[in-house]
Design a protein that fits this description.
The protein is α/β, with parallel strands linked by helices and 165 residues long. A four-stranded parallel sheet has the order 3-2-1-7, covered by helices on one side. A three-stranded mixed sheet has the order 4-6-5. The protein contains six helices and seven strands.
Length: 165
């Protein structure tokens, strides 16, 4: 993944852009360039984390695009509702089935590294006492989209950052 980010950063430097990047490694500038001729579009951002900082869709939001932002952290979604109120923002744990109970390895509120992956947890060598295990019920993307005001929209961009799940 780090090689991909390095190549993306080099590519970003080759594309001159006076725009400020809000995402990690300038991914949003690349996305903005790809969709430069599309005035309005629809995105689905799963694992959205923060409405502005390190966010792949904020630049598109500023251009008039709209979408669905999903994160398992309630505080994150509360902030999305304040800053990106034209989007549909949902606190949920995404899976292939509705109503399954899953364990979340929870570092702290607003953490970008909270995860469902026990394997990822092992690789991080995290002290057990620094993590809480929370239980959350799952939902599906299809169900969330169907309940949203965007249920009949074509998805132009799908951004997924769900920590190894």
């Amino acid at each position: 993944m780090s090689k991909f980010i390095d190549k993306l950063s080099i590519f970003k430097k080759k594309i001159y852009s006076p725009k400020k990047s809000y995402s990690f490694g300038g991914c949003d500038l690349l996305i903005d360039y790809i969709f430069k001729s599309k005035k309005k579009g629809f995105y689905l951002d799963v694992g959205c984390q923060h409405p502005v900082s390190n966010n792949n869709t904020y630049l598109l939001y500023k251009r008039g695009w709209r979408g669905i932002n999903i994160d398992l952290d309630k505080e994150s979604i509360d902030e999305f509702n304040k800053i990106r109120d034209k989007d549909y923002n949902v606190q949920s744990l995404i899976s292939t089935n509705i109503g399954e109970e899953k364990e979340i390895y929870y570092y702290h509120s607003r953490s970008a590294i909270n995860t469902l992956s026990k394997e990822l947890l092992k690789h991080r060598n995290t002290k057990k006492d620094s993590i809480k295990i929370l239980k959350e019920t799952t939902n599906t993307l299809e169900n969330i989209i169907e309940k949203s005001p965007f249920k009949n929209k074509k998805i132009n961009l799908l951004s997924i950052d769900i920590e190894n799940h």
